Amino acid sequence: MQLAVWRLVGAPLPRDLPAARALLARAAAIGHVDAALMQVALTANGSGAAAPDWPAALALLRVAAAGDPVAAAQLALVEAMALDDAGRPARAPFGELLSDAPRVVRFRGFLSAAECAHVAGVAAPLLAPARVIDPASGRWVTHPVRTADDAAIGPANEDLVIRAINARIAAASGTDIAAGEPLTVLRYRPGQQYRAHVDTIAGAANQRVMTMLVYLNAGYRGGETHFPAPGLTVVPAPGDALLFRNTLPDGRPDPLSRHAGQPVLAGAKWLATRWIRAAPFDPWALSG
Question: Do residues 17 and 7 lie in contact, with contact meaning Cβ atoms separated by under 8 Å?
Fold first, then answer.
């Protein structure tokens, strides 16, 4: 298992995803529970293999669920979803148009309460002070524009529940699941906010063309999502999702997509974000 992790992270050994997959399979075969769950995730998203394989991942999860309550809970959530044989939603989610410029669509009840809790639970141990991409260097840095804690659920942690949710986001947005960045969870506590900004990346060859926000909880005040240009303010409701375009038809950033996460006044706001690129990209370039 340790060798597999080193091969996934790329330190102290070079990153080698096929080798990591083989090591995880060996560790799972001798009873390492975490290796079995990671093997499921990588099988589903195709890391280190020719292509994603949902049926094989589901079969592995069923084996793991026989002796592991964590795997059993994941399997129960997946089996409660209406999915096709590839793990995609049986029907595309339906949304309501809130704005034409920028295009903003709300999907009510996009996630169930159990799915929201699962997303937050996966991200919670990974939370760290949030960062933004510095336009000058292209690196992730802390910045006062964004005060929160966040965690990207990278490929090694993309269990079948998260994978199915990412497929649902792809269906709602009409995009390829491979074009989405890792699902990122943010926690805003009192006084924290995300000041007005655009989600596009200056000079990016593979631009963030859309953003999906999913509100995960209740029990807080403030935290509205505000779009200044159309004068649109969306009050979060648990399980609801908000999809908006970040670019114009010619691919240039749309200044009207500027938006803000208003300060949280009381409690803690949990939010999941998936930035969707114009074309598929390698998620291992952003997360381990």
Answer: yes
Dihedral sign, Cα of residue 182, residue 80, residue 243, residue 188: negative
Give the pLDDT confidence of 21-41 residue by residue, as tens digits: 999 999 999 999 999 999 999
The residue range of the domain holding 120 is: 96-285
Q: Indicate which CATH number applies to the domain containing 147.
A: 2.60.120.620
pLDDT for 37-66, tens place per residue?
999 999 999 999 999 999 999 999 999 999
Inside any domain, residue 163: yes
Q: What is the DSSP letter of 182?
A: P
CB distance 228 to 257 below 8 Å: no
Which helix (H) or strand (E) segment is 132 a member of?
A: strand 132-133
Let me know: does 227 contact 99? Beta carbons within 8 Å.
yes
Residues 70 and 136 in one domain: no
pTM score of the predicted model: 0.94
